[in-house]
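Entry:
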Amino acid sequence: MNQPSSIRVLVVDDHPVVRQGLIGMLEEAPDIVIVGQGRNGHEAIAVFQQQQPDVTLMDLRMPDMGGVQAITVICNEFPNARIIVLTTYDTDEEIYRGLRAGAKGYLLKDSEPEELLTAIRTVTRGQQYIPLNVAAKLVQRMTAPELSDRELEVLQLVGQGMNNQEISTALNISESTVKTHINRILSKLDVKDRTQAAIIALKRGIASL
């Protein structure tokens, strides 16, 4: 029978081996009990609503619905939700989007088990858990000019190597509008051409090849 002080944890990850590995490791901790698991954002929301765990470990990139969207939905309904992003990605944009959505912690999957336990216990106490290397990238991202949602979409497609006509078709907007967005993106990122913009998009995790 669970002790009253047990931390109730929900684990969300689309890779079964990772998910089961996390669960097996966490179940060895005397103060943690697993109350649910999910393979994507939709399942995360459904299980969270049913179980209302103390802490949720959330992967970012998952099929059907990703972690950022799930965190946003959960935190809108449950403002006191304590969610820790647990991911393989440490790019500026991923960190920024995860924490802006409402996550209270951010850890990489190659972290030591003890650090994960520390993060869970820290977040349970109502504090944030952001390692120094993650915090440094977050600060860098927060000082960068903010791109609009549409500008981010255009930059993602630029990062994938699309030309203006292809972006126009993909987003169902005119080529002149695409050019306007690209000019604003170049200005905000302080770069001279779309190649430099694409490199920044890949480095920050805004786009992926």
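The radius of gyration is 19 Å.
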